[in-house]
Design brief:
The complex is a heterodimer of chains A (298) and B (410).
Chain A: H1 2-6, H2 14-53, E1 56-58, E2 64-69, H3 72-76, H4 80-112, H5 117-128, H6 135-146, H7 151-159, H8 169-193, H9 197-205, H10 210-221, H11 223-238, H12 242-246, H13 255-263, H14 269-292
Chain B: H1 2-30, H2 36-54, E1 65-70, H3 77-83, H4 88-96, E2 100-105, H5 108-117, E3 124-125, H6 129-136, E4 143-144, E5 174-186, H7 187-192, H8 204-207, H9 209-212, E6 219-221, H10 225-235, H11 245-258, E7 262-265, H12 270-275, E8 281-285, H13 286-296, E9 307-310, E10 317-323, E11 325-326, H14 332-342, H15 345-355, H16 370-373, H17 382-385, H18 398-409
Parallel strand pairs in B: 1-2, 1-3, 6-7, 6-8
Antiparallel strand pairs in B: 4-11, 5-8, 5-9, 5-10
Helix pairs in contact in B: 10-11, 10-18, 11-18
The chains are: A mainly alpha (298), B alpha/beta (410).
């Protein structure tokens, strides 16, 4: 039934349809024009600029020297240091994504299955409330919670389960999980909320258990949400910079910090650009593969 | 449809690329490009400003002052009131009838990028020692030689800062404030570990595994490759400006070994961490620690009884921030008048009473709070002074320092 409802024009005359489609696409083009212009100026162009910079020599102050080309920085990508830093960052981002998903899925499921719309919206607002204050401010708040006199430390000491966490890896992990969980919950919520529950019911009618129905129907149908959420969490975690510095005491070098160093005290803009382009390219390839492989359902 | 869209996108991109490439040319011209033509423009613009500077008279003003300075580095507004010192910004504005437009930066590199991009007409900047040597380098050429005739108060300067390595001829920069980096510490923790601090402390507090063991997880180091690797180099008896890879590797290794004992690398809150008890030993700048000790002290509590600061016996780093006129200046004469104003005895006193940093202004000593002046933490003894080094610009070797720091952190 629904399939037919989605395509009422299928029975209209081909000519009329063509005309309507053309008008529709022009309208679409003009609606999207400001966004295109914005993205070209503020995304595509800067991307081209940093790609060019990654092939230039550096000046004495670390700036790119246009006109003097080199492959030095791309070769430097093979340094063991770059590999170590890169691997560590990817691993941390992966862990954060996995845990966000584990925590976020049941939570999004629970919100999406509340019967009353008011309740659902109320819960969503609660998810969004942290965004009303700046991320940096919230990270500082975590610092207070995790330091020796902090609430979380006191609870841990009282129960004997954990000690002071500030400046440890668990603190970084906790901070990242806290920061990016909403990015996982929101797309998951959207995917689960729009799910056709009749299909789940049908599965149950055909003697699938609750777990099997979830595994065979709910999970595959919410896959676009899972993937979108994972991308939204993975990418910023990979470049995380404030959290490891403030909660981890800047004790390990991650990609984000490593890039910042190149632009500041390292005085090496071209290499900073090379690192940035590499990350962007890898991310873009991953995203394209995903869209090719069936992300079209998004 | 899609094809049309792509075509349009490409056209827009090309158009933007063209306009941006012409922008590029103008920027290169302003900051010293590679072609002959642009080089001449730079020299001309430069010498025009230089001529303007050379014509400045004492106390002359040629407009409002665009001051590009570090945060909390000059007393003004409610801060000045809190510290009970004169509001120097208001005083200058009143005395000369011009305004001071303040802009702030948090590190030398941000300032460098701003001046190099030529985006804003800053008249006066306050770079640190090594940054002066970079900016004054003829190849970089971002500073103008100041006009000594317009700054009669130069006579007040401590000769200690003459012939300094960052500005050998002293033509580009005038000292603003100076200080040292060392350890701030809680006496109680050192007592408990049985460490005698009466006759000086050692960098071993962090680098010697045995001496440092009781402080595991209670130490913070500066998040700055030159400072922190510099500390390791000093502990090993090397120069903080070494360009010998073997020496740097050795320093990297001992810092890496100490990494587990270090709680955090922090250049902004090292004093707060110490005062809050998160650390008992903090590597940081003297003014940062002393300002905090002073703020924590009340009529009933003297923080100086609980906390100390010292430069380790092996020696350490002395730094100086300097006033300089960048090539972006539009009101160089006001800038010179301001430099002269800061070098005035009374104003110099107010400055140090606010920053708790060492004054390069000898005449100011009589206006500096005797407690600050007599404090070896602010004004180190000659014996300590002799063991201190300036951080020098090591050219391309700076890349090795930043990589070494990343390696040491693991």
């Amino acid at each position: 039934m629904t399939m037919l409802d989605d395509h009422p024009s299928e029975e209209a005359s081909p000519e009329l349809e063509k005309k309507a489609e053309r008008a529709e696409s022009w309208r679409g083009f003009f609606t999207a024009l400001p966004t295109y212009v914005f993205l070209i100026i503020f995304f595509v162009l800067p991307l081209i600029i940093i790609t060019v910079i990654s092939f230039t020599e550096r000046s004495r102050t670390g700036k790119p020297v246009l006109g003097e080309w080199t492959l030095e920085w791309w070769i430097k990508l093979g340094d063991p240091l770059v590999r170590t830093v890169g691997f560590r960052s990817v691993w941390l981002a992966f862990l954060n994504t996995a845990f966000s998903l584990l925590l976020g899925y049941p939570f999004a499921y629970w919100i999406a299955t509340r019967k009353s719309a008011i309740m659902r919206n109320f819960l969503l607002v609660l998810v969004l409330i942290p965004f009303w204050s700046n991320f940096l401010v919230r990270t500082y708040a975590w610092r207070t919670l995790l330091d020796s006199n902090g609430l979380i430390t006191s609870i841990g000491e009282w129960t004997g389960l954990w000690g002071k966490m500030l400046f440890t890896e668990p603190a970084v992990f906790l901070g990242l999980l806290y920061g990016y969980l909403p990015f996982m919950v929101l797309p998951l919520y959207a995917a689960i909320e729009h799910l056709d529950w009749n299909l789940v019911e049908a599965a149950r009618d055909l003697y699938a258990g609750a777990w099997k129905a979830f595994r065979k129907v709910t999970l595959p149908l919410s896959m676009p949400g899972i993937i979108a959420g994972s991308i939204l969490v993975f990418i910023p975690s990979l470049g995380a910079y404030v959290t490891p510095d403030l909660l981890g005491g800047a004790k390990t070098t991650l990609l984000g910090n490593y890039i910042v160093t190149q632009f500041k005290s390292g005085r090496n803009w071209p290499f900073g650009a090379t690192l940035s382009v590499t990350i962007l390219a890898l991310m873009m390839i991953a995203t394209i593969i995903y869209f090719r492989k069936g992300g079209k359902t998004l | 449809m899609k094809r049309l869209l792509i075509l349009l996108a490409v056209v827009a991109m090309l158009a933007a690329a063209c306009s941006s490439s012409s922008d590029e040319t103008t920027t290169t011209a302003a900051s010293g490009g590679s072609t002959d033509e642009t080089t001449t423009t730079v020299v001309e613009a430069d010498s025009e400003l230089q001529a303007q500077v050379n014509a400045c008279q004492p106390d002359e003003t040629d407009g409002d002052l665009n001051l590009y300075n570090w945060t909390e580095y000059i007393p003004y507004g409610s801060e000045a009131e809190d510290y009970g010192v004169t509001d120097l910004v208001a005083k200058f504005e009143e005395q000369y009838g011009v305004k001071i437009i303040q802009t702030f930066y948090e590190d030398n590199e941000t300032m460098l990028a701003q001046i190099e991009a030529g985006g804003a007409p800053y008249d006066l900047i306050v770079p640190s020692d090594y940054m002066v040597s970079t900016m004054a380098d003829p190849e970089v050429g971002l500073l103008v030689k100041f006009n000594a005739d317009a700054i009669p108060n130069l006579v007040n300067l401590d000769p200690l800062f003459d012939n300094a390595p960052y500005d050998p001829t002293g033509e580009f920069s005038v000292p603003y404030q100076a200080g040292t980096s060392g350890f701030g510490f809680a006496y109680a923790a050192l007592d408990e570990a049985g460490i005698d601090y009466e006759n000086g402390i050692s960098w071993g507090l962090v680098f010697d595994p045995e001496m440092s063991a009781p402080f595991t997880g209670l130490i913070s180091m500066l998040n700055d490759e030159r400072e922190t690797l510099g500390a390791a180099l000093k502990y090993l008896g090397y120069s903080v400006n070494t360009t010998d890879q073997a020496e740097l590797d050795e320093a990297t290794a001992i810092l890496k070994a100490a990494n587990d004992r270090i709680a955090a690398y922090d250049s902004a809150a090292f004093d707060d961490l110490l005062m809050a008890g998160e650390t008992v030993i903090g590597h940081g700048w003297n003014g940062g620690f002393l300002g905090s000790y002073d703020q924590a002290s009340t009529d009933d509590y003297d923080a100086y009884e609980d906390f100390g600061y010292a430069v380790p016996q092996e020696g350490g780093i002395v730094w100086v921030d300097l006033m300089a006129v960048p090539i972006t200046a539009e009101h160089p004469c006001t800038a010179h008048t301001f430099i002269n104003f800061i070098l005035d005895a009374e104003n110099g006193g107010d400055l140090t009473n606010y920053t708790y940093y060492m004054s390069p202004n000898l005449a100011a000593y009589e206006y500096i709070d005797p407690e600050i002046l007599g404090d070896e933490m602010v004004f180190p003894s000659d014996e300590t002074m002799a063991k201190l080094e300036f951080i020098a610009d090591v050219g391309d070797f700076s890349l090795n320092y930043s990589d070494a720091f990343a390696v040491a952190k693991g």
